[in-house]
Specification:
This protein has about 70 residues and is mostly helical. The protein is about 45% helix and about 10% strand.
Length: about 70
Amino acid sequence: DETPLIPYRATGGDLMLAQRLQKCLKDAGISVIVRFGSIIVAPPLIIKQHELDDGINALDQGLTAFRKAL
């Protein structure tokens, strides 16, 4: 199913899933910005390989926690 979880230009209660995802990612150590139905992840421009690996693992943990919460 290609129906988006969050409607385009969502506001108010429609953003509840985005806010839940933001919390799961934050709990895993990833800071993100939620804007309408978009989740913005912006790692630093200068990053070491092990930091990138740690970030990808944390992102995976956050997404897994979100999926389990659905």
